[in-house]
Please model this.
Amino acid sequence: MRRVTSLDAGMLYAETREMPMHTLGVVILEPSPDEPPFQVMRRVFEERMHLLAPLRRRLVQGPLQIGDPHWIEDPAFDLDNHLRRAAIPSPGSMRELAEFVGDFAGRLLERSKPLWEVLLVEGVEGSRIAIVAKVHHAAMDGGQVVARLLGCLFDPTPEGRTVPPPGEAWASDREPSLAWFAADTARSLATKPLHAIRAIGEVATRIGQAALGHRGSRGNPASLFEAPATPFNGALTQHRSVALADVAFDDLKIIKRAFGTTINDVVLAASCDALRSWLLAHGGLPERPLVVSVPVAVRSEGQEDAGNRVSMILAHLPVQIADPVERLMAIRAETRRAKAEHGQAGGDVFQQFTDVLTNITVPWLLTHVMELYSSTHVADQLPFLWNLVISNLPGPAVPLYFGAAKVVRVYPLGPVQQGSGLNLTVLSTMDRLCFGAMACKEMVPNVEDLSIGFVDAIEGLRRLAAQRR
Model:
């Protein structure tokens, strides 16, 4: 049994029907005729569950929700509760698959079981299948979900690889008793004041470092609560929509070399181009640049199962700039400044703020505050933290197989938050950069236009890069 970290606990307390806190991965496969796909999926998971320890842990909490939640090795763990088959009408297009995934993304995971679910979806055009994995952000670091699943469950050849057995047999935990919960809650409440003082001191230090960094910055650095109003900012509904696309990774390398940028700069510039086109078609551009939150992993080696470890960089997206090269150069300058400031301030910003929240109150209160905040649409009345989140995740560069089935594409999808109804995530794997847009359905109509715009932006920058040779 292990105590849930404050950051992971904060994600659990923040979750409501309107704001599920899970991440998704969509893997497109060309199946092998030698073995039924669902049989392959079950066999692979059964053989390799010891490589994915968080997936056998279930959340437990005292009946009054006063003490801290814990993870236990679930004594009732059953793989059949997490692996299911589904189908879309054949031949299902990628747009139809995206609609299916959007509906799946809008449903909360059941907390009576370990917080994950995997669907094998048949009927995809081209005689393909899709594996759609949903994992709660608190159960496994959201930025690492797709990479960890790919690394543990997939192989570099169709012949597979030898996976070492676990060092020791898995043992479940006993369900904690009421007496145990009472004692643990008493210990937790007794130490909260000390932890709160320490956490408040860390946050104060962080704010001071950020203020000094802003004071020494050139220009106007992006900050919280300065995001302009857009159609995708405000209170969330329960419905989600998804768009999927991909481009050649070599095209991003060509653009990067031609203009002296990073791959992440190219991703942000293409996203900015797509957002500019979408905003022009849905009410016009805001007067100020968008503010984007870019998650940054702060995990050290050996912390794979230590819960989420993430910070963020805030940057401006200059959607007002029409010229694509000028826009890319502005983003390059912006990200360089933002990274320098982040390096000076340091620290795990989300961990520090959730340390404060979880130590000055109790889970029951935090959960009910979030439910009230969500159900009353307060996010429509408050300044927005940022406009959207854009994540860039690394993936394996080698071909991958699931059993003998070849991996064709891997699309990542991150959650949206109250006040910010759009998340764009990309993953580089093999020779492709795969793009996934997750949106609040009512706030972002025609979400597929963003994926089309991203692909067109990369193609446009590649042509301009070729002219500079």
